[in-house]
Amino acid sequence: MGTHDITLTVNGEEEALTVESRTLLVHALREGVGDTAPKVGCESGKCGACTVHLDGEAVKSCMVLAAAADGGEVTTVSGLGGASGEGEGTAELDAVQTAFHEEHGLQCGYCTPGMVMTVEDLLAERPDPSEAEIRHQLKGNICRCTGYQNVVRAVETAADRLSEDPEAELGADAADADGGTASEVSD
Ligand code: FES
Ligand code: FES
């Protein structure tokens, strides 16, 4: 099995890794970089638990070979956070994370890192999405706990807050994103 020396910039930190040809980006992040925010679920592109941003676009990191991501900029949910959090326990959360916290958009939390990264991508492209657009965007992110109602409410709350408060923040790379949507990569 061949190996590759690659470099990834993960949440702003440059990381040099040696990976096998078959190594998936999600495993490189979790085991090589030590960022366990992206979760391993189906490993076949169906559940969205592993969603991260690669060069500003939401991707399922189980569907990307680490070697193919060489030189890329990766943002995981660990790299989010800003000045928009309000209230005890939320000061380091960004607008989307804060809304998930407030609206109880999670139960066990396994799907949440991927959900949040998908929502960051949605709101960067569509700051005022309809409920149908929210549900469409999230169709590639499976949650076994919440029934999605609170997740949708969290996205609506985040969108409202971002429209009302210009100081509220999305994750930095999501705000810059100009690529395809998570729904496109999950199709
Ligand atoms: S683990 Fe990547 S989509 Fe399920
Ligand atoms: S909160 Fe448990 S899988 Fe979504």
From TrEMBL:
Domain of life: Archaea
Amino acid composition bias (Low complexity), ranges on this chain: 171-187
A GO MF label: oxidoreductase activity
Keyword annotations of the record: 2Fe-2S, Iron, Iron-sulfur, Metal-binding, Oxidoreductase
Keyword Transit peptide carried by entry: no
Protein name from the UniProt record: (2Fe-2S)-binding domain-containing protein
UniProt-listed PROSITE patterns: 2FE2S_FER_1, 2FE2S_FER_2
Cross-referenced InterPro entries: 2Fe-2S-bd (IPR002888), 2Fe-2S-bd_dom_sf (IPR036884), 2Fe-2S_ferredoxin-like_sf (IPR036010), 2Fe-2S_ferredoxin-type (IPR001041), 2Fe2S_fd_BS (IPR006058), Beta-grasp_dom_sf (IPR012675), Diverse_Oxidoreductases (IPR051452)
Boundaries of every 2Fe-2S ferredoxin-type domain copy: 4-80
Coiled-coil region(s): none
Region (Disordered), start-end ranges: 159-187
